[in-house]
Amino acid sequence: MTATMMETRRLLVLLAVMTVYLCVGAAVFNALEAGDERGRKDELERSISWFISNYTCVDESHLKRLLRQASMDGELVFYIINNKTHLDRWDFSGSLGFAISVVTTIGFGNLAPHTNPGKIMCVIYAFVGIPFMMVLLAGIGDMLMVALKRIANLKLCPKKRRVNRILNMLVIIVLGIVVGFLVPATVFHIIEDWHILEALYFCFTTLCTIGFGDYIIGIHEQRISEGPLHEAYEVLAYIWILFGLSYVSLIIKYISDILASNAELVERKTVQRLEAEKRRLGSELWKSGLRSASINSNKTTESFALENEVNGVELLSVNYI
């Protein structure tokens, strides 16, 4: 089997596994979220019906047009409802957050350019910035790798190398979870007034560049809503995103390498078993062929001897006559 055929077969197996994984995920999320969404839709319809029935002076078509317009930019609705006269989404810190979400491909989705020049600039900015950010994240990852290698070389249990390796790996994992997830989640829990699970959810979806946009830092928080402290908070959060992305990319690469090595090991063992079975069958066929040739040879010898004996009897008979 050629290397190209082996690689093609491995890709087909990975494609099949990923397809099954996606289908299972779709079924699970459908079971968890579809019913809740229908419930929220029914509740909204009841609220609109109650409002129209109690405020008959409001035309239903006008109300629906207002809701349609409000749904196009929910963040602006939040600003208006809370009487916030200062729009800070496109100030320096907000624009910096948008730029980072573009070049890191997180794409929270809460903020997007509305003007045509802004959209054109976004495309050009992303085209140049994304490769540069990938190089930067790789450099930060290399720097983090040096630190992780130093931790991996610690002698926590020098007498037992296996135990020492496991302890070092646990230290790396715990340190990454604490610095990358628990500490930032605690800060977001305090400042943004999120539940701790919501904060952890935001940390994970952000550092994995999923970026749904359902939770955004610095938008709805009320504790340091204005001033230099607010901008410093957002800038520190963006620095955390850069280092966190590098750390998570290292972890994902490590897991991917393990899965790839295991897949290659299974494939290599499968090929070895097939080759061994092929050699065994070939050996058995070869031995079977030898036995068949031996039997045919014996039969030929016996027939030749019998024929000689018959000829000898006939010759004696002729001589006797």
Descriptive account of the structure:
Helices cover 80% and strands 0% of the residues. The chain has helices at 3-54, 60-71, 74-81, 92-103, 116-152, 161-191, 196-207, 228-320. The protein starts with a helix and ends with a helix. Residues 312-321 have low confidence and may be disordered.
Keywords:
single chain; 321 residues; mainly alpha; 0% strand; extended; disordered C terminus
**Uncertain segments of ≥5 residues (pLDDT<50)?**
312-321
- Annotation field: number of helices: 8
Classify the helix fraction into a percent range: over 70%
Biggest sheet details? none
Gross geometry:
extended
End-to-end separation: 73 Å
Sketch the topology as an H/E string, one letter per element: HHHHHHHH
Mean pLDDT score: 80
> Which strand-content bin applies to the residues?
under 5%
Question: Layout of SSEs?
Answer:
Blueprint: H1 3-54, H2 60-71, H3 74-81, H4 92-103, H5 116-152, H6 161-191, H7 196-207, H8 228-320
Helix pairs in contact: 4-8, 5-8, 6-7
Compact overview of the structure:
The protein has eight helices and no strands. It has helices at 3-54, 60-71, 74-81, 92-103, 116-152, 161-191, 196-207, 228-320. Helix 6 (161-191) packs across helix 7 (196-207).
